[in-house]
């Protein structure tokens, strides 16, 4: 079984809910590591990341980019970068924001670039978009992403009102990353 760690920031709980779905998909043993409001990892967090087969990054999109807390974490990963400690690990990512577009793709590309800096192997979403006239918000990948998971939490939605198709997409992606990491481990 591959060790999957989902490291994410969430200011108001919506991205946390997405992270929980990614973890469900990744299966037993998947660990959630929440970056604090100060941009720090919980105790033991770096050891968990160093031991992971796969690392999945998650961030809300704030002003068209990852949150500053996630950015602080990404700069702190430079310590692992110096020794290429995470080289050949499997990586993935997700971003959540209020608008359908909301520039989430910019955040995902930042996550993908971070993985590339570490010499990682990035996992694409691997789900065709649901984009016909009949498409529903309950469909998998109804926001039409490809690099990773895109989630839209309407600005007035509680954490329990995130469209189910987006959450199911997050779950399917967690499963895909875990399976690919398992094949390579
Ligand atoms: C400071 C700030 C900036 C935001 N910028 C964007 C944005 O660029 N695009 C967008 O669609 N939503 C934006 N939002 C909305 C959040 O992405 C959205 O509410 C998201 O669900 C928050 O996730 P969280 O509860 O995990 O923090 C912004 C919210 C905040 C607080």
UniProtKB/TrEMBL annotation:
<dbReference type="GO" id="GO:0010181">
    <property type="term" value="F:FMN binding"/>
</dbReference>
<dbReference type="GO" id="GO:0016020">
    <property type="term" value="C:membrane"/>
</dbReference>
<dbReference type="InterPro" id="IPR005025">
    <property type="entry name" value="FMN_Rdtase-like_dom"/>
</dbReference>
<dbReference type="InterPro" id="IPR029039">
    <property type="entry name" value="Flavoprotein-like_sf"/>
</dbReference>
<keyword id="KW-0285">Flavoprotein</keyword>
<keyword id="KW-0560">Oxidoreductase</keyword>
<dbReference type="InterPro" id="IPR008254">
    <property type="entry name" value="Flavodoxin/NO_synth"/>
</dbReference>
<dbReference type="Pfam" id="PF03358">
    <property type="entry name" value="FMN_red"/>
</dbReference>
<protein>
    <recommendedName>
        <fullName>Flavoprotein WrbA</fullName>
    </recommendedName>
</protein>
<keyword id="KW-0288">FMN</keyword>
<dbReference type="GO" id="GO:0003955">
    <property type="term" value="F:NAD(P)H dehydrogenase (quinone) activity"/>
</dbReference>
<dbReference type="GO" id="GO:0009055">
    <property type="term" value="F:electron transfer activity"/>
</dbReference>
<feature type="domain" description="Flavodoxin-like">
    <location>
        <begin position="4"/>
        <end position="178"/>
    </location>
</feature>
<dbReference type="InterPro" id="IPR001226">
    <property type="entry name" value="Flavodoxin_CS"/>
</dbReference>
